[in-house]
Amino acid sequence: MDYKQFRGAALFIPLALTLAFVACSPAPTPEPDTTGATDPDPAVFVVVTQEQNMTQGMAMVLANQSLDQGAEVRVLLCGPGASLALDGEDGDLLQPREVTPGQLLDRLIGEGAQVDVCAIFLPNTEWTEEDLRDGVGVAEPPEVAEYMLRPGVRYFTF
Questions:
Q1: DSSP letter at 96?
Q2: Which residues have a Cβ under 8 Å from the Cβ of 118 and sit 6 or more positions away?
Q3: 43-157: what fold?
Q4: 19-39 mean pLDDT
Q5: Percentage of the chain lying above the pLDDT 70 cut
Q6: pLDDT tens, 74-116?
Q7: Which long-range contacts link 96-102 to residues 24+ away (Cβ below 8 Å)?
Q8: N or C: which terminus of the chain carries fewer CB neighbours within 10 A?
Q9: 60-79, pLDDT tens digit by residue?
Q10: What distance in Å separates the CA atoms of residue 66 and residue 47, rounded to the nearest whole number?
């Protein structure tokens, strides 16, 4: 090996090793956010399909807490869970606050949360829109799907 070949190899080998090292290194992970910043537009989609009083109550408690912490809240009541949407169907008092799921739902509505029954609830039951509590609408599937596909929407099902 002459000097030119040695010099070429001496330059090539470190360069090749550096490229191999960089190519095999894991991608840098982003630093965790320690500023306390949160999603600027948090959105929560709560779907209630159960008719159990405590289940409906906990869904409403968490939806209200999310609303209080700045989230946009949307509620979809389907199947047996849609009974909560009916006027006068408040459920039983829950401890320790002595509040019903219906009262918690009314608070959500009063604070601006969108609350709907699923599109197939009314046509498949004896109920009509007149039987729904004030502020509860009927979901439009294309609009619900659009909302569900928004980036950052968090889903909770009960």
A1: T
A2: 76, 77, 78, 79, 82, 139
A3: Hypothetical Protein Ychn; Chain: A, (3.40.1260)
A4: 51
A5: 75
A6: 999 999 999 999 999 999 999 999 999 999 999 999 999 999 9
A7: 99/57, 100/57, 101/53, 101/56, 101/57, 101/59, 101/60, 102/133
A8: N
A9: 999 999 999 999 999 999 99
A10: 14
